[in-house]
Each structure stands twice: as C-alpha cells, then as structure tokens.
Amino acid sequence: MLFVGDDWAEDHHDVEVQDDAGRRLTKARVPEGAAGIARLHAMVGQHLPEDADPGQVVVGIETDRGPWVSALVAAGYRVIAVNPLQAARYRERYSTSGAKSDAGDAHALADMVRTDRHQLRQVAGDSDLADAVKLVARAHQSLVWDRTRQVQRLRSALLESFPAALVAFDDLDAPDTLELLAKAPSAAEAARLTVAQISAVLKRARRRKIPERAAAIRAALRAEQLPVGPASTLAYAVVVRAQAGLLTALNAEVARLEEQVEAHFGEHPDAEVLLSQPGLGTVLAARVLAEFGDDPKRYTDAKARRDYAGTSPITRASGRKTVVMARYARNNRLADALHQQAFCALNASPGARAYYDAIRGRGKSHHAALRQLGNRLVGILHGCLKTRTPYDEATAWPRNVTLTPAA
C-alpha cells in the first residue's frame, strides 16, 4: 500500500508518499488544478504496479470537499479527511519546539493515515444530488445567519438614535418594517408619516387589521424620546437606511435560495423519509440531508450517526469520578438543525412530547431535554433511512418506552 499526505493551500499542495514501513518514497509541491492532479497521479504511479487496485492508495488531507478531493475519490483512492485539530496534535509527536512547515505537515498526514487510518473517517461517497443540496442548504443557512447579524446591528442603531421604532415594530426584518424605516429612518421623519402612508405599506405587506395597526404604529413613532444631536441624527439616519436596504436585499436572496433548496431536495430519493420525521419541514430536512449525506455505508449504526450529529453525550471517567457531558465538538450546522427539529417535534409528535416531559420531570433543563430528545430522533431517523420506511408514531414511541441512564 501507499500512503499520501496532502497539505493543501489555495494554489498548491505539498505531497509526500510513503510505503508500508513509513519510508518516504517521494515528495513534491504540486499546483492546484488539473496539472497538479496529473503530477500526483504520476508520483503514485512510479511506486504502484500498473495492475494494482487504486484502493491501495490512502490519502490524508485536512478537508472533505472541493474539486481536488472529488478528483482523488474519482481516481479510486481511499481519501481520509483529517480534522485539523487532530493533525495539529499528531504533529506534536515529531517536534516539541513548535516548528512547522508545509512539507512537515504532509509528512505527518502521511504517517497518520499509515498508522491510525482505522480510527479515522473516510470521505463519504455522497451522490452529486446530495452535494447540490448541501451547497444550496448551506448557502441559505449562511444568509439567514447574516440576516440575523444585520438585524442586531439595525436594532443597535435604533436603540441609540430612535428607540420608539423598537416599540412600534415587533419584527425588524419584516418587509413593512423595512419599507417604513427606509422612508423614515429618524424620529423627525417618522413623526411626519400619515396614517394613510403607513396603511399603504401594511397593505402591500398583506397585514391584517390595518387601521388599528397603522394607528398604533403612528402613535408609537410619535412618542416622546430623549433628544439626539442634529449631526448624530443625520448620521444615524444614513446608517438605518443602509441597514434597511441591506436587509431588504437579504430577504429577497433568502427567499430565492429557499426555492432552490426546495427544488433540489424534492428530487432526492430520501426526501419522503426525511419529511415524514416529526419537526422537519422542507428547509430543515434539506439541512439534515446535506450534513448527514446519503452514503448508505457511512454510518455503521445509529450510534455512529448520533456521534457525528453531536447529540450523544461524552463520558469522562478517571478513577472514581465519572462525568457525562454534552458534546460540543460537532458539526454546528447539523446540531442547529436537529435542535430546531427537537423543538418543533414537541407539537408534532405526542411521543416526543411525552419523552421531553419525562426528562424535564427528572430536573433537566429545557436545552438538555431537547438534546436528549434530538438524540433519540436521530436514532429513529437512522432506522427509517436504513429500512427505507417513513416515520410511524406507534413504532417510534411504543407505550413501554422508558428513560435509561444513558439517555
């Protein structure tokens, strides 16, 4: 077998090839792209017989995505995505001085997959459709997070210059709120808004009880507040108008990406099983599929899926002391989606609600109970995907289900 360490950068890769004994056969710096892949194949071909199986080549690299990784997988190599934190800890075996180089990192990666590949995760062979779902689902989630950050910035600006707006508007990223703030970003401009102008904006946003809501907004915007200097007022108005415009654009792009998420996810064969799970709508289900992938051989059992999801706890035992803790080294995108699923499942599934109430009855906090519920829902999802069976409430939550200490 051959073991390849690949320390990648934006425009090049430092590569080292080792044999079974850990002897360095060759090393080089190759460029990113088709020319670099061809050079890497040539380096491997010099030490691998022509009739050998490409699966005899094991590649260690600190990423699991991108055209370079896809090319390695397509060549038939066994590609292992090494966590950068694991690689850093492993590198300390060679040097305690803190010295570091790209060539040294490639050597450490090659040695790591040679000695410890049985404890590392091979890059999953997800389908092209699953990769497409991952791209649009992650882009959509990133835009939602960006929108939340922009809303907080807008709120901060209003709190310092125009606090009456925070009383008038409940949802700062709503279309009618953004349109009104763009028209009147300061207290003086807002005081000149008429009921008719506010009603027209609410009508375009398809709000209900428009006369009552318009009157309440107008009264709140005209409420007395502490004065702000004229120059500062003008400056804050510019900031608020800019934030409102940015949030309007973000809303449009989030909606457009959501349509793409629904379109790509709807074509996947696992969509029916995922949508049958309690608490999963189209967007959340797409995020779960994107982060778990669709390689049927990736998770050997439900525990492996729970561990990857970060819902299963970790145990620290030393001598007579044993502590069970939440797992925070995890895929944060997947953890966020599963946490939301657990919360939504409280209303969608009587069994999930009873399970949550039982955990809360033991004195656990709300978030701890949701983590345990999410852990069980991941196990249920694994069984449904393995048997290609939609969710069934009676099967998932039998009457004699009990809470075990390991929960």
UniProtKB/TrEMBL annotation:
This is Transposase IS116/IS110/IS902 family protein. GO terms for biological process: DNA transposition. Residues 272-356 form the Transposase IS116/IS110/IS902 C-terminal domain. Residues 240-267 form a coiled coil. InterPro entries: Transp_IS110-like_N (IPR002525), Transpos_IS110 (IPR047650), Transposase_20 (IPR003346). Keywords: Coiled coil. Residues 4-163 form the Transposase IS110-like N-terminal domain. GO terms for molecular function: DNA binding; transposase activity. It comes from Parafrankia irregularis.
